[in-house]
TrEMBL record:
InterPro entries: DNA_methylase_N6_adenine_CS (IPR002052), DUF7059 (IPR055487), Euk-Arch_PrmC-MTase (IPR052190), SAM-dependent_MTases_sf (IPR029063), Small_mtfrase_dom (IPR007848). It comes from the Bacteria. Gene3D superfamilies: Vaccinia Virus protein VP39. Residues 160-279 form the Methyltransferase small domain. It comes from Nocardiopsis rhodophaea. This is Class I SAM-dependent methyltransferase. One of its GO terms (biological process) is methylation. The lineage of its organism: Bacteria, Bacillati, Actinomycetota, Actinomycetes, Streptosporangiales.
Length: 500
């Protein structure tokens, strides 16, 4: 794209959006046209199957070759379907030797607007992907929407809210998701090119409630508060100063994620949420849960930290050297070695990836849950995420006496499984399994299993335990004494809910 960052007229955005939709340049249309084989090949950076699937002069095929595969198409054919002159003036295309070339990557994106808003078609504009053997990204490269973008979009809690902030918006993909949940969205980034492309993404998606501001971290919104903040920050942990603005900051180690969380309460309304993706260090002789949990605990807010993956230092370095297309270059070995030297000096044994969600709970006892979840869970997480935090907070608040007086009910989608030898009088194991949500499994005893079978929120826990103790010929006082700790854990993990 030209360095001048030319304005993109709304009229042109509306016209291009209608052309794309009419040609079925949508998530489902692209998926159907490419097919599984070509899609898997593209994931391996192989273009040939996709070029075969998009051959000819049919509209969708040409749009895919131009905007997605970045292959030039004949000027005459392009002018038959696109306002080439206007798009060239806006810096999205160039014409050379009878061929039209795309200067940006244009991706159809399905925008989830929360529980009540459903989903709608959107478009994300970014820099073209730099493929291996074709150089490295420029320092202010604007990366497109990918797996991390999808992960964060499914994490966002449902609205509606009044004000939302997309901190480090990049190509604007999270701003699109926030636009359907919030009356007003502010999108910030340190990179002016990112803000320009984010504005085009919003225009092409028909979004008009997003404003952009340039600056680092919270500087562009000093003194302001938001009901919802999301961020896919430049969390990549590297030695030295940042080389690429989309993935690295000038703060050392995992400090950028720590600072975003630590400063969040100053920019959240009462009950407001911040949700970010993050990398964090696993350091020798230190529990990562203490490290990351401390970021949240220091805010005085409630939070949920989830680790989804861990890479050893070599895996991590290889991932990000591939990302910047440095494999096979003269610099590869030097950078690899320097990166590992840095991790060795810092005592780094691994790098975790996951998410952090924090709620600004005014005048309440904060509860912070830190855990690892490697298995598949129900998506989108944002639909039930507040219940996870509420469960942890409720369980922490209740004393044993209060818990015995509380009314609890088995959570929806929880089933019981008994494992044992056929014909045996008693099972070897009794499991409670969540068929939805986080898909947790808990091994329980006969008392908890019996409680799960009868509790529906109509009676307090204490009298139910007394009845179960009598039926199982156990001492009621002993059952009352040992059950609260187990039940508190089951409430925290979402197997039971306190109804009153």
């Amino acid at each position: 794209m030209s360095e001048s960052l030319r304005p993109f007229p709304r009229r042109l955005a509306d016209r291009l959006r209608h052309i794309l939709i009419d040609a079925d340049y949508t998530v489902s249309g692209v998926r159907d046209r490419l097919g599984d084989t070509a899609a898997r090949a593209l994931a391996r950076e192989q273009l040939v199957p996709a070029l075969r699937a998009t051959g000819g002069e049919e509209r969708l095929g040409m749009l895919l070759r131009l905007w997605w595969l970045h292959e030039p198409i004949p000027e005459k054919a392009a002018r038959g379907i696109l306002p080439v002159t206007e798009l060239a003036e806006a810096g999205l295309l160039t014409v050379d030797g009878g061929k039209v070339h795309a200067l940006v990557h244009l991706t159809p994106w399905e925008v989830d607007e929360g529980r009540d808003g459903g989903a709608r078609a959107g478009y994300v504009v970014s820099d073209p992907t730099v493929r291996p053997g074709h150089g490295s990204p420029r320092p202010d490269h604007v990366v497109g929407a990918g797996g991390a973008s999808a992960t964060l979009s499914k994490l966002i809690v449902d609205g509606p809210v009044d004000r939302a902030l997309d901190l480090g918006t990049g190509c604007g993909v999270q701003a699109l998701h926030l636009a359907g949940r919030s009356a007003e969205v502010c999108a910030t980034d340190v990179n002016p090119r990112a803000l320009h492309l984010a504005e085009i993404s919003c225009a092409l998606s028909g979004v008009d409630n997003v404003s952009t501001r340039q600056g680092s971290l919270y500087a562009p919104v000093a003194g302001e508060r938001f009901d919802l903040i999301v961020s896919n920050p430049p969390f990549v942990i590297t030695p030295g100063s940042a080389r690429y603005t989309y993935r690295e900051s000038d703060l050392s180690g995992d400090a950028v994620c720590a600072e975003i969380i630590r400063q969040a309460p100053d920019h959240l309304t009462d009950g407001g949420w911040i949700q970010i993706l993050a990398n964090w260090l696993h350091v020798k002789d230190e529990d990562w849960r203490d490290r990351v949990g401390g970021w949240v605990t220091g805010t005085g807010c409630s939070g949920w930290v989830v680790q989804r993956d861990v890479q050893d230092p070599a895996e991590y370095v290889e991932l990000w050297l591939r990302d910047s297309c440095e494999h096979g270059t003269p610099e590869y070995t030097r950078r690899y070695d320097a990166w590992l030297d840095y991790f060795e000096r810092e005592g780094v044994t691994g790098i975790g990836f996951g998410w952090i969600s924090v709620r600004n709970d005014a005048a309440q006892d904060a509860a912070v849950r830190v855990e690892e979840l490697r298995h598949e869970i129900e998506q989108p997480v944002g639909r039930y995420l507040p219940d996870v935090v509420d469960g942890a907070m409720t369980a922490r608040r209740l004393t044993d006496a209060a818990l015995l007086s509380a009314h609890v009910a088995l959570a929806p989608h929880v089933v019981e499984e008994r494992i044992g030898t056929p014909g045996a009088p008693d099972p070897e194991k009794i499991l409670l399994r969540q068929r939805g949500g986080l898909h947790r499994v808990a091994q329980v005893g006969t008392i908890e299993a019996a409680l799960a079978s009868v509790c529906d929120g109509t009676m307090p826990v204490g009298p139910l335990l007394d009845a179960i103790a009598e039926l199982t010929d156990q001492d009621a006082a002993a059952v009352r004494a040992r059950t609260p700790d187990v039940l508190r854990s089951l409430i925290t993990e979402g197997f039971f809910r306190v109804t009153r």
